[in-house]
Amino acid sequence: MTHAVLLRRDTALTLAAHGLSVLPLSADKRPFGNCPDCRDNRCGGRPNMKTPGPCQCPRPCHGWAAATSDPTVLSSGPWAGVWARAGAVAYHPGAAGVTVVDLDDADAIAWAHATLPPTRTVATTRGEHWIYQGAMQSANGVRAGVDIKSSMSYARWLGTGTGAMTALPSVVRALVEKKPSTVRPMPTTVPAPTGGGKCPHRSPAYMERGIAMAEQRITNATSAIHNTVYATFLAVLSAHGRCGCLTESHIGRLFTAAQAKGESPRHCTDAWSNALTALGI
Fold this sequence. Notes:
The chain is α+β, with helices and mostly antiparallel strands. The chain is built from 8 helices and 9 strands. It has helices at residues 3-17, 71-75, 106-115, 170-174, 204-220, 225-240, 248-260, 265-279; strands at 22-25, 88-91, 98-103, 120-123, 128-133, 139-143, 146-149, 155-156, 166-167. The termini are far apart.
């Protein structure tokens, strides 16, 4: 291994020894598909590998859910060959009980100085990470140049930073709080697939996590909403559409998330039907 490869791997092991759940990122800051079935999106084609695909790995092998503090996983097994291709180390802020306010430019930094209480600050390539003690829901684009990275998300490790970490303020939580919903209910003309295939799910919690990840992916979308909704529906049906475990309640949650981003009930229905057709369900 080269010095740079060893440095990234050793950084990950050091962070894991201190209780942080970490994962390798590629040079373009995306998580790897760390097993052969998941490399190059072969496990289902989910963009950016930000959420686990429907593969049958022993555990989620990419996205924030793959973050681990297990030194064996980080230095051997499927990840043994990943560090040579890695460009950075990331961690799961929510698992560490912290929230990262990702400020992408000078305007966002100026807003933070005027609005947020001081806390630990880490310099990034284009801006700063302000890190607060306390976990919350993640969201992208909460305002111009500002993302919130905590639960069900990952952030690059860029060093310990400067300043004392302070408690997560209500002003940050308010950035992603949902307003009272005006979304219409899911049309009753969309039944759940009857299934009949072999069920690959290990537990009800596995199914619940998959639906929650899909909701989060739609909620976090800041552009190409139509494409994101369709791709998410396609991924959910690919993983859960053939065994009969997907219920109308699950579908309703996905439609509600999509409509909260501005999608019409008609578009939701069309996207769902197109995904069914594409998969032959």
